[in-house]
């Protein structure tokens, strides 16, 4: 991958955000397929359908949910809550209902937030068949209070919960090497902008950018419903996922708060260094959330059987902003410009990851002959214009001495007490001269006792 | 092994101490067999006899020693020293003698301690044929001083030194797993209470306690004459001993001084942490003697060819109390109550060792589904009564993420910044739910170059 | 190798220095063969000839250079520069020339040092065919200034540059073990005393000393033209060179400045400790130059394909003294006495290297029986005269416990908190008793990813 200007405009981001925002996404269902179909107009996603009832590790693919309508009407026929008005009003995976209920009977099926009177909360009941409505506290107070205790409310939930399938979008972008980097986002949330329509849209445009570039690594880009989708994808691609070393879980990338990142499971993995470098380059404080097993799909990818080091670059990380998982997380909360900036951060991180090469000396035995290649300083000029030839020679000699295919440039810079940038430039130059050869990837040993067979069962 | 009340009473300890104290034990001989026979009434010891002359590594099993009588009489027929009075009076392995000696001739065969006038020292001459008597300085002064320089003393030592065998007691208590823990004590000392009748009696009652419990590990319990007995036992059980990872050498457990422990050869081995925890639980200062190659049978068990990490929990450690190896180390010096406390410490240490499990996630790929198992917090109550569900979820998620069968709970507690006790409880709970599986033992690599084949001979 | 008095006298060193100083050495040619022939009168060197045009790794053996004469004459016939006067006057590898030149034409072929008016610099043009003369600034000013701008100077360079061969001297001294230590020096510099006639002469006498001794290690001693000679030697002896663990590059050993040493590529390798010990023993400050990829033939030997840890003990290290690479680096600058001292330092370093043994316990299982070998302290005397028996027993027990063939004595001394010297003495004593066995060499894993196959190419 070579650094090049962003092809993505804030305007095109804005269009996609607005198109996708109203769709009612969930773990499964027509809103998900519409979302993927819309993305396919941007990037050549392959859509995989995993049938309901399929066992995926400890999980089972649930029935498909098709919400058509949902409302609560007062005894006077007034519509008090309507799914058509905001798809957050209907609890995700609500079963079909048609009947009349007293307020006392209805009450356990109504959800609001006591401390956020304007916000409709986001609720689901994926694995326990139930039904319900979400509304703001204010809506409840204004719309339900006028009725007396004997009032009967008409509930209509027109949904289907039936055998179907869970949809996953996948795009494999082959690079110069077969080593893959994972880019994963989740698209199961309905009309919530930062969490995680922003991540979906960023990932789509990131994929489009990568498609337009020549990449060193291959990229495995997946759009999954959170958790069950990631689990299902892992189960259907186990060997490929176990071969992954690192990547990103893309989530919450365009809010009003600060940029930050969640570190990967092994805090010393180079992906963390790469992200810290990006934040510094973008002149942002390095706000690092340490890895923990709460969170998003890194819970699947970092599990003992995979141990993929995934980080997340966020702008208003989930859990950290009050609008999180409510109807206040609207398109107004985020901005296409922020999204484009975080997109550039992701691209830059991938650039750095790809730049973070592991060279080996092509002629490992003894010194390479520098003078016939014009690499030995002579009076009056060095081998690269405008620089000090003595410092260049230092870089050349240290690189040829230490590049063994397993020592990264930052480590060489430290031992040689030289600038990383100069080493990087010189290494690229020496590669061009045929004196160093990049290794596609170092042989990283995963810190994974299960994979490594460190013990036997008794 | 499950924690349960001590079945051992101080009274029964006291009875056994009094029965065994008078017996004249040595490396071999009838006193040893009587001791083992008496222990067999308590626990089902197997007695192995290794014949005199058997080569065991660098050592040879010595002749069997059978002391019957030993005395020194004055020219007036007065009995000045009598083995029947205290078996410390006769130097261990004294050869038979019958004759008359001047005091000058006798002097090299008399041993006392200049700085402890009341104490009869404990002396042996196992590997150099010799004879002698031990007495207190006061006894010497009172009994021998009255005679003039021309006096002749009659020495009678009626012992046999002849082909026989060395007796070792062994009890294998099978546990849930075939992995063994070593419990070794030495019983070659005659009437010395703390060193080491206390260890012999503790080990016997410890064995009895373990027999009454359900244990996770298997226990290899051995009663050996110190050094030669341990060597002989290793030589006859080489493969089993090399398979051992850790254990205890049980010695000096009931004196008047402080509790303490001698660390194992690799100071970071978990057995040392376990013992420190026990001392803290018993509200004792953590008095730690670092490993050194002096001491007891850890010298054999920790040698390069075995490298078993053995610790010793002591009360008045050998070398550290003035009565050590003298007739002042009597039953009055120790107490059955102290012995019972140190017995409880050993039991507790074994409990902790057994508790120190290494879990693996049964479903290592991706997350385990928590909600159908009632493990996901819901409004109004958690999955375990009386506790905070958020903290519980933390423990669950961290455990499922990090349990790879090779990382111990204390390390997980550190990385997760959670309480070890909570993790322990939750891990047991998750094991009950079938989500974690205990590994019988981690695969510990012994720090043993010889065993590991780190080099070849040239 | 056992320590013994130096057979080398300053007088014999002085004779050899004076014989070799005037010879015109270079990468190749008759001066090199004369030098090796002269050394063969001292030590049984084998001379290898590598033909011009031979590819050796990235290099090609150059043509052979045979300088016969070289001069510049003024228009008045006066000889202004004459190779016969000082062989530094002629740039090494100058091509033949016969012609007349104006001063302007001649100027690029004249080399002096602006800031050292009395010094003739040392210059070569091995790999770019050229010609030239070196002279002091003062010589230039005095000899060329008198002529006017129209003067024509007659240049005569009578040299041959033709197919021949590069000569290398090699001496293999077998030791008790087949493990080799490298001793390498370079002899391509013409009349320069410290750099590196001193190293050549020291290496020759060091070889002679080693020939007279019984050595534990085998020594691979090589006299090579710097860089190309070392490269050619490695290429012709690849397997043997890859089997080497450590050694010395011998250079600049007899100047007026301080002793010091350049560390090896892995700063923790024991060769560095050994050299620091020698400097302390010789009551010199420990002046350590860290490894860097500039320097001498360690550039070849430490390259990724070999990773031999070579150090250099220097007296006035190259780069560090003003006379370096000029005609001021004469026999007056160095002294045979200094050379003999540095020779003793090298011998002492080799002694320490050979002393730095790795013992293994001959009886790794259980304790060795000490008393029948007279190793257990008894009243009135220890096993070694004049020493404290308790301390001796400590040393014995620690050594038998920790000697596993992979732990060096300094590490044992540290863990046991005992004096290294006492441990060393005791280990030798125990070896004599047949209780410890020296391992010829520890199995050192080279820190060399290429050699270790840590990664595969993609």
Structure described in brief:
Chain A is an alpha/beta fold.
Task: Specify Rg of chain A, calculated over alpha carbons.
Answer: 27 Å
Number of helices of chain A: 14
The separation of the N and C termini of chain A measures: 48 Å
Largest sheet of chain A: 8 strands, mixed
Largest interface: A-B, 31 and 33 residues
Q: What helical percentage do the residues of chain A reach?
A: 25-40%
Structural class of chain A: alpha/beta
- CATH top level of the largest domain in chain A is Alpha Beta
What's the domain count of chain A? 3
Tally the beta strands of chain A.
18
Question: What is the CATH architecture term of the largest domain in chain A?
Answer: 3-Layer(aba) Sandwich
The CATH homologous superfamily of the largest domain in chain A is termed Zn peptidases
What is the fold named in CATH at topology level of the largest domain in chain A?
Aminopeptidase
Strand order of the largest sheet of chain A: 1-10-12-11-13-16-14-15
């Amino acid at each position: 991958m070579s650094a090049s200007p962003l092809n993505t405009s804030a305007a095109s981001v804005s269009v996609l955000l607005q198109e996708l925002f109203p769709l009612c996404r969930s773990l499964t269902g027509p809103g998900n397929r519409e979302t993927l179909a819309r993305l396919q107009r941007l990037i050549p996603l392959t859509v995989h359908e995993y049938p309901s009832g399929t066992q995926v590790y400890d999980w089972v693919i649930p029935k498909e949910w098709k919400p058509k309508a949902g409302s609560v009407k007062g005894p006077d026929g007034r519509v008090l809550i309507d799914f058509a008005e905001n798809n957050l009003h209907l609890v995700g995976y609500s079963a079909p209902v048609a009947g009349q209920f007293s307020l006392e009977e209805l009450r356990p099926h109504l959800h609001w937030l006591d401390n956020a009177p304007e916000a409709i909360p986001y609720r689901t009941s994926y694995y326990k068949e139930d039904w319900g409505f979400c509304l703001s506290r204010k809506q409840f107070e204004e719309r339900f209070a006028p009725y007396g205790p004997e009032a009967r409310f008409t509930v209509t939930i027109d949904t289907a919960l039936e055998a179907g399938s869970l949809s996953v979008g996948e795009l494999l972008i082959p690079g110069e090497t077969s080593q893959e980097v994972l880019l994963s986002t989740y698209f199961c949330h309905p009309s919530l902008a930062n969490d995680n329509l922003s991540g979906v849209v960023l990932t789509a445009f990131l994929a489009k950018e990568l498609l337009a570039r020549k990449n060193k690594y291959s990229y495995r880009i997946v759009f999954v419903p959170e958790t069950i989708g990631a689990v299902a994808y892992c189960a259907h691609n186990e060997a490929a996922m176990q071969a992954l070393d690192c990547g990103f879980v893309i989530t919450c990338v365009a809010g009003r708060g600060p940029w930050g990142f969640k570190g990967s499971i092994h805090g010393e993995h180079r992906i963390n260094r790469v992200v810290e470098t990006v934040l510094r380059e973008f002149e942002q404080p390095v706000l690092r959330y340490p890895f923990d097993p709460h969170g998003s799909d890194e819970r699947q990818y970092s599990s003992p059987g995979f141990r993929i080091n995934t980080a997340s670059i966020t702008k208003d990380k989930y859990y950290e902003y009050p609008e999180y998982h409510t109807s206040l997380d609207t398109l107004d909360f985020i901005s296409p410009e922020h999204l484009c900036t975080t997109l550039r951060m992701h691209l830059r991180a991938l650039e750095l990851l790809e730049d973070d090469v592991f060279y080996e000396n092509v002629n490992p035995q003894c010194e390479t002959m520098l003078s016939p290649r014009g690499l030995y300083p002579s009076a009056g000029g060095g081998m690269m214009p405008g620089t000090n030839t003595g410092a260049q020679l230092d870089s050349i000699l240290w690189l040829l001495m230490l590049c063994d295919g397993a020592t990264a440039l930052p480590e060489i810079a430290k031992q040689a007490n030289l600038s990383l940038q100069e080493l990087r430039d010189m290494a690229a130059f020496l590669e061009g001269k045929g004196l160093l050869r990049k290794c596609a990837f170092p042989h990283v040993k995963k810190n994974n006792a299960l994979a490594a067979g460190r013990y036997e069962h008794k």
